[in-house]
Amino acid sequence: MARRKAHTFKVKAIIHYKTQKILSLCTSRGAVHDFELFKRNLNQIHVGVFILADKGYQRIYTVYPNSLLPLKAKKQKSKKAKKQKSKKAKKQKSKKAL
């Protein structure tokens, strides 16, 4: 039988990126997702504050529109890289054919 952690305590701090001043401090007992903790303590965040969040806050726009998430990385290579790769492959095929 696997043992589970008996006590968990989550603390989330929102700080100003330039002054490093703490804008909001949220705590919760137990395993709570970061975004759920954010929604519970939304009233502590000042109106008009711009929030830069990580990918754990995927639906933050619906709750707090003045926010930004990092962009997803492109899974496919750029068109130029694909064209160059296909040109090299064509050249190699033509050399083998001769």
TrEMBL record:
- Top-rank taxon of the source lineage equals Bacteria
Gene Ontology biological-process entries: DNA transposition
Which UniProt keywords are present, listed alphabetically? Endonuclease, Hydrolase, Nuclease
Q: What are the start and end residues of every segment in region (Disordered)?
A: 73-98
For this UniProt entry, the molecular function terms from Gene Ontology, in alphabetical order, are: DNA binding; endonuclease activity; transposase activity
Q: Does the keyword Nuclease apply?
A: yes
Does the keyword field hold Cell division?
Answer: no
The UniProt record lists the Transposase IS4-like domain at 4-88
Q: Which InterPro entries is this protein grouped with?
A: Transposase_11
Protein name per the record? DDE family endonuclease domain protein
